[in-house]
Specification:
Radius of gyration: 56 Å
CATH superfamily of the largest domain: P-loop containing nucleotide triphosphate hydrolases
Largest sheet: 8 strands, mixed
Shape: rod-shaped
Distance between the termini: 50 Å
Number of helices: 25
């Protein structure tokens, strides 16, 4: 039992939220419709945006050149920090400004022949591009979105090209700086070689050493060693030069080899072939301009170029193979001379002793300095070739193509988002309005907030039962109300009830008439009294005269028996309000009302009295004080709860018995709970009518 009690508030809390949504679903749907409509129209008015992408492969630049290294082995590896740096470079001002200049975007994007400023054009361009990396690769995608598909493709390609050119320019600049550094080192090393040669000459003079013949001349072994040292240095220089050239040729593909052949070799056949190809290309350009690509002469010239290029490739390949053989021979020659020199040097040292040690040391120093100088010369030549045939740090893998299918606006996605936003805004507005609405919204408000028993629930737009008929679906609501009233008020013979409302227009007149109607249907003697002297309506419902009535009885103009009139409804009689002179507004004297009520209760089983609103008038309080019980009619979502509470407190302060309340004019289509409540009776009576027809058959 306790568990159920604990769970109930949570359930009711959820139902309250759902009730708000269901009761204001029209508002929610209207807001959602407006948002969706606005989003749809806005989407349709937006210009189409097209996207094109180019894809590039980037690699890191080679490290700083060491002028003393014969060969550098460098392997490019995946470096995410390097790639992120390139993202920033791709979208940097120098790159984008160059793109703007090359494509003349300042004029292209200007309106009415207006030229945009560089800053505005740069801002537009930067907002149009996005750069990202393909997962775990060195590939970078340059994506451009513009309202023109051709323009998007051109910008993507131009960014890739400008970035590639900038990287090549940077690599060339680094190569030139390296060459300058090597040339400085060459100058210094050339001076060191000269100093070493001067030192040897001085030692020769001091030791009286001659290269050939004379007194005190160097012995045969020493002369032989000098010759071998010279031969060894020459062989070493030749080996190093051929090795460097061979490494360069091995790193070049066939295309680069053809383009740079004239820089690498001075072979006369190669030079002549290149000259022939150039002459034919000049002739080909002229013929193409005159006759087009399909002319026989054009095809013949192109065939000649292809034949010569194949011949050139074979010649260069043969040169490359021959160079490989020459390098092996030079290497073997150097190694052989090195072994012989070592043997001769050993024999000479042993024979000459310490006398010539300074001379030999000076020769060794000269050999070292010459070796360093030769290494620098070899490296200098390699860098010259590298400058002429630079390594490409950027490869354009995919060229952007115009995409004729727009990527935005996405009508489906925008409409879907508008639906969610509209529903959210509608629900939010519904809850906000519900928060501001302090009217009575449910039977729970009457029971929990006002502590009133609910006698009945009446749907919206209920008319008097004299118009709808006794078999109306709404009649059952009043039968339930009459039954609940009899249980609460402990009805005996001769009971008087008045029907009240806190404000005007809450449906109390219809409620009291329908109560009297269903009571009369049950066979009891009922009197309906219209005590709303200022705005009487009961005579209008019954279609009867209001010339004489309650006011005349209270003023002693006519006896009550003469003022009461029979109606077309069996067991129901009617006491109209009568016409109220302005001088007789205080006719509702408590003593007179008390006497009248007691007199009517003795003659009728039930007396139902229609009263004016409680707020702003005293008539209702006077009548309610003299009857057995009062029924408070509260209209669904009309008056603030505080106003109704004030009316209830006013009645309770006068010790007036409130039998219960009736929640009137409920919008059953707005509130699901009341919809199902009402449809229950409709379905029930429909099934009952069908069963009756079946029995008759």
């Amino acid at each position: 039992m306790n568990n159920e009690a604990n769970q109930q508030p949570s359930s009711l809390h959820f139902l309250d939220y759902w009730r708000v949504i269901s009761s204001r679903k029209e508002l929610i749907l209207a807001v959602a419709f407006l948002v969706v409509l606005t989003g749809t129209v806005y989407t349709l008015l937006l210009p189409n945006i097209y996207a094109s992408s180019s894809r590039i492969l980037v690699s890191e630049d080679s490290p700083e050149i060491n002028p003393f290294a014969v060969q550098q082995n460098y392997m490019s590896t995946y470096n995410p920090y390097f790639l992120r740096t390139q993202f920033e470079i791709l979208t940097s001002k120098p790159i984008l400004n160059e793109v703007i200049y090359r494509l003349n975007l300042q004029s292209e994007w200007g309106k009415n022949n207006e030229i945009l400023t560089r800053d505005i054009a740069l801002k537009i361009l930067k907002n149009s591009i996005s750069v990202f990396q393909q997962r775990d690769t060195s590939l970078i995608v340059i994506n451009v979105k513009r309202d023109n598909p051709d323009e998007a493709a051109d910008i993507a390609n131009e960014i890739a090209q400008v970035y590639r050119d900038s990287r090549l320019e940077l690599a060339s600049k680094s190569a030139r700086e390296a060459i300058d550094k090597i040339e400085e080192s060459l100058t210094e090393q050339r001076q060191r070689v000269a100093n070493a040669e001067e030192n040897i000459q001085k030692i020769r003079e001091d030791l009286n050493i001659a290269v050939v013949g004379g007194e005190g001349q160097f012995d045969v072994g020493e002369v032989r060693m000098q010759q071998l040292e010279g031969d060894r240095l020459f062989a070493q220089r030749e080996m190093v030069e051929k090795e460097g050239l061979l490494r360069i040729l091995e790193d070049l593909n066939d295309k680069d080899l053809l383009e740079r052949a004239s820089y690498i070799t001075f072979d006369q056949f190669v030079m002549n072939t290149i000259q022939q190809i150039q002459d034919i290309e000049v002739n080909l350009s002229s013929v193409q301009a005159d006759y087009g690509d399909n002319h026989p002469e054009v095809k013949r010239l192109k065939s000649q170029i292809v034949t010569l290029e194949e011949t050139l490739k074979k010649r260069l390949s043969a040169l490359r193979n021959g160079l490989d053989t020459e390098y092996i021979i030079a290497k073997n020659n150097f190694e052989s001379l090195d072994k012989v020199l070592a043997s001769v040097r050993t024999d000479t040292i042993e024979s000459q002793g310490a006398k010539f040690r300074p001379y030999r040391n000076a020769l060794a120093d000269l050999e070292t300095e010459r070796f360093i100088y030769n290494q620098l010369m070899s490296k200098h030549r390699q860098e010259i070739i590298t400058l002429q045939v630079p390594q490409n740090p950027v490869d354009i893998i995919d060229v952007a193509e115009p995409n004729m299918q727009p990527v935005s606006p996405n009508l489906f996605l925008n409409v879907l988002l508008s639906i969610f936003v509209g529903l959210g805004a509608g629900v939010g507005l519904a809850y906000f309005i519900e928060y501001l609405d302090t009217s009575v919204k449910s039977a729970d408000d009457l029971e929990n907030q006002l502590k009133l028993k609910v006698l009945g629930l009446v749907p919206q737009k209920v008319r008097p039962l004299i118009e709808e008929g006794p078999d109306s679906e709404n009649a059952e609501s009043y039968r339930v109300m009459k039954t609940n009233l009899s249980f609460i008020a402990n009805e005996n013979e001769g009971m008087a009830h008045c029907v009240l409302s806190s404000g005007a227009g809450e449906g109390k007149s219809t409620t009291v008439f329908n109560l009297a109607y269903v009571a009369a249907q049950q066979g009891v003697k009922v009197l309906l009294v219209d005590a709303d002297l200022r705005r009487p309506v009961q005579h209008t419902i019954l279609g009867m005269s209001n010339r004489f009535g309650l006011t005349n009885v209270l003023l002693r103009d006519v006896p009550v028996e003469e003022a009461i009139k029979a109606t077309s409804i069996p067991n129901l009689q009617f006491l109209p309000s009568g016409r109220l002179p302005r001088a007789s507004l205080g006719v509702l004297d408590p003593r007179k009302i008390r006497e009248l009520v007691q007199s009517l209760k003795s003659k009728y089983d039930l007396v139902f009295i229609d009263t004016p609103p409680i707020v702003g008038m005293s008539d209702a309080n006077i009548i309610a004080k003299e009857v057995d019980s009062s029924i408070l009619v509260v209209q669904y979502r009309k008056y603030p709860l505080n106003m109704i509470r004030k009316a209830v407190e006013t009645l309770q302060a006068q010790s007036i018995d409130i039998a219960g309340a009736v929640l009137n004019n409920i919008n059953v289509m707005r509130d699901d709970y009341y919809y199902y409540y009402q449809s229950h009776y409709s379905d029930y009576y429909q099934r009952d009518d069908d069963a009756a027809e079946a029995d008759l058959i």
